[in-house]
Design brief:
Structural class: mainly alpha
Helix content: 55-70%
Oligomer: single chain
Number of strands: 0
């Protein structure tokens, strides 16, 4: 290294050297052909409904008002409106679970939000147990989670 060269400059130089050394890409790393590019475009046009879209649809299907749903889910009105009005908004797992339980749509709604119940999480096991035993009351589920010092649903 040159005298007076900063650590940042050395790291940048090393990065550039590595980039030049790996310029020859293997065949499978190159840009896709036009045929696969076209099928990707087709797939991207067929995106499923979002969590928010499913939430609104399920509220309508169950003949609930928005307020009935977010109160049953123990979720703040402002957060509900954020989910409803911002198309790409991604709720936390606890919020998605709260709405899923409130609407009795756990698995599908969690998938729409990009989550799943996991047996590596005590909170998820508690929620799964409550669902299996027919307990869809957020307050009761939160009491159990609170007693076990686990993160509550909703809010």
């Amino acid at each position: 290294s040159a005298p007076g060269e900063s650590m940042r400059m050395r790291l940048q130089r090393r990065y550039l050297e590595k980039a030049k050394a790996t310029e020859a890409e293997p065949e499978e790393c190159r840009a896709p052909s036009m045929a696969s590019d076209a099928s990707l475009r087709d797939m991207l046009r067929q995106v499923d409904e979002s969590f928010a879209q499913m939430l609104i649809r399920k509220i309508d299907e169950k003949h609930m008002s928005d307020a009935q749903c977010y109160k049953r889910a123990n979720v703040d009105r402002r957060l509900f409106n954020k989910i409803k009005n911002i198309p790409d908004y991604r709720p936390s797992k606890q919020t998605a679970l709260a709405f899923a339980i409130a609407l009795d749509e756990t698995k599908d709604m969690l998938m729409k939000a990009g989550f799943a119940l996991s047996h590596s999480s005590k909170a998820d096991i508690v929620v799964e147990y409550c669902i299996m035993t027919g307990n869809y009351d957020i307050m009761e589920i939160n009491q159990i989670l609170f007693k076990l010092d686990l993160q509550l649903l909703g809010y």
